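Cross-posted from the bioinformatics board.
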Amino acid sequence: MNDPLKRFIDHHRDELDDLQPSPDLFLKIKADLKKDRPKEAKIVKLALYQKLLSAAAVIVVLIAGYLIFYTYKNEPTLKGDQTAMDKNNKTNVQKRDEALSISPGADEVSSRKTTASNHVVKAVVKPPKLDVDLNTIYKDLQDSTSSSTRLAAILKIGKSGIINYDIANRLAKTLDNDDNNNVRLTVLNLLGQYSEDSYVNNIFLKALDTQKDPIIQLGLIELLKRTDNPHLDNRLYALANDPNTFATVKDQAYLVLLNQNKL
Amino acid sequence: MKKQIIILFTLLCTGLIVNAQKEYRLAKTAGHLKLNLNGAIVEGYDGKEIIFSSANNTTVEVDERAKGLVPIASSGYADNTGLGVNVKESGQEIIVNNIFKSNSDVLTIKVPQGIKVSFANNSSQSYEDIIIKNLKSEIEVSTRYNKIVLENNSGPMNINSINGPIEAIFNSDIKGPVSIISIYEYVDITLPVTTKGNIELTTNYGKLYAAKEFKIDIDTSKVEKNSNRTATTSLTGTKSIVINNASANQINRNANTTTSISSGEGTISIGYSYNTGEKIKGKLNGGGIDLIFQSTNNNVYLRQK
């Protein structure tokens, strides 16, 4: 494309380039640049102890992070009136998957100890030597042919002293679905030791809604009346006012409400 | 005189009263016998048949008008035994049901040793005693008002009743676990002193009694007093309690110490409380099978055989 202006500039370049910049122009530009230039950071040399402190801080953070992560993965024991106690009055916590069987010499796990005021303190203790096979216990717990086998499995859990949320859930399932009252009452007796724990307390409260067998209802009322669950009153009212409730259960519900001045 | 005797005899024979022992047999040596009756006498024996028989001290009036007809009931079951019950086989289970809910006839049932026995009665109106004896297989009983009597059964067993008392006599061969629970009535157990077991005696509002010959190694970490607030215990280890040969003893025990001993009559009370319950877990003769005896609102008696 023909550009006349361009051609004109090209032909008369020498005549147009007759001006020169002033000598101090460059200096002015340089001075402006200096103003805008960011100040270089001061290089501070660390003393040796400061270096060591920094390294130690990093290590502590890493260890704390590892412990927090490991503790989060572990399932805590249920706080309760009577837990498996070792000589130092500490409860034992272990994480259990469904397919995991316990063997001695497990890695150190974190545990909790409850003081008299129920303030939870974390401590690291070695787990006790255990020779229970939870797999077998879980299998026996689901043996539909023999209630005695299921009962024996629950008694083994009680003797082992192991209790965690997984086991609590399995026991809750047994409480809901087992067709033998002795088995369910044994579950109540075992979980009843942890009735102060809110998780177990909620299991009982839920069971009070779903259980229709008078023996189990009586057992649940007996356990729950010792706790301070605020939702208990509503459940007891519902039970007492249900025309299908067994007379003895109604009487017991009324008695608890009467003792608590809720009638 | 002879004529009078003949007439009387004829009247008796042609009368409307039928008085005879009836029987129903079922060939079975293994399986699960489920009894949904008002009461029964179940006896184990070394045979190959389940034998149902009706007590011969009841009389059934034969209704002439009902000849050619069969009795029907709201239960939906038909009498296929002639004993007023329906017996149905379903796989390994033999299920026995009353035709009529108010049937007060107590059957005697002889059961081969390999058969597991279950008895259930949730009726509040129709209930008779349930007696089970000489069985070596597993037993399950669940009732509301029936009195339960167990004699010389080996177990394992799960027995519970809401308002029925439970009495059990054991021999030396016992298979655990044995769980016997009554909510409102007493539990009375007779055991050989040499029984090796992990024993658990519980009552919430009653008392625990035991014969002085029993030596129970009580696990003090498991001693609980069931008051309105549960007590936390941090006791460990075991404490051996030997019941001495004093004429009778009543021991009041709290979670920590043994308190005063007063004399009484016959048996010893281990743990006593008017308003709070007692739960004792311990070992008999070093421990062994699990024995759970519980009465929520009444007493538990442990007698020596």
